[in-house]
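Researcher: Good morning. I'm working through a list of sequences from a screen, and I'd like to move beyond sequence-only analysis. For each chain I'm collecting a predicted structure so we can compare shapes side by side. This is the next one on the list. No need for commentary yet; just the structure.
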Amino acid sequence: MGSDISHDKDRQQAEQTAEHQRRLQQRQDDQDMVAARHPRAEQTPSPLQVGTREQPVDLPAQHQAKPGREADLQLAPRFLAPDYQGSNKLAGRVAIVTGGDSGIGRAVAVLFAREGADVAVLYLDEHEDAEATRRHVLDEGRHCITIAGDVKDSTFCQRAVARVIEEFGRLDILVNNAAFQEHADSIEDITDERLDETLTTNVAGYFYMTRSALPHLREGASIINTGSVVGLQGSGQLLDYAATKGAIHALTKSLAHNLLPRGIRVNAVAPGPVWTPLNAADRPAAQVPKFGQGSDLKRAAQPEEISPAYVFLAAPVCAGYITGVVLPVTGSIGAI
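Model: Good morning. Structure tokens for this chain:
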């Protein structure tokens, strides 16, 4: 008898819940009918400005010859991060930044100096840009040397590291950042020559620099690799470049495992679209103004919005318990 009563109560409660759900549904149905009769005008989302200062939105229609020069960009990338206050998080340390003449590399070099590090800037042949970076590091009160050469050449990597040790007597941070990028509509357009240039610059260059630096990196040192959002999500127009960035992410995690017993942390930053000479030297001029609009923030980042992530990963006081991560700084939700 008791079980029948319980069964009836359960059934009655279930029916009440079902009725409640139908009422909730009906309210939404009524709202949908009103919305269908009075559709809202479509609004184009505005680019979002959620940092400490408003960043540029309108990019110039400009195309450059490779490797691209920051001095010649019609809209100068922002790298000084005037609201970033240093606090000696890298005091007494020495860093190498490849591709440090411009773009993200320059922004990283400046903030490393602001945090107390001396910096060696490695670059290809953008001498004017490299000299400008050196001056800005000096303005931060730190020492800086510039070294021109090609990271595809393993002997150059060895010579560059030797020069840094000769100049500064130590090495604590390696930022692998130099890259080659060129778009293509089809894999059929990517020649063996071009594939070799992309793979050797973006992957072998990281290997060569790491291998050359490793004998001089002590416990507490840090390696930071520049990955990319396209290494996380892929890109239909950057097939070879995206493949190298995916490889860099895997290399980062593998090196983190390999070097953990030596007390060396290895991490990567995966930027989204960033306004640098790399982009003006890749895309046709007509496409450049649209660069970055596909991100959730609806605009490209400036280098100064990316560089603090490198400081965070380099500084033991911030990231001493972090190794083997790929940190997305993409302006979008759900990058990984």
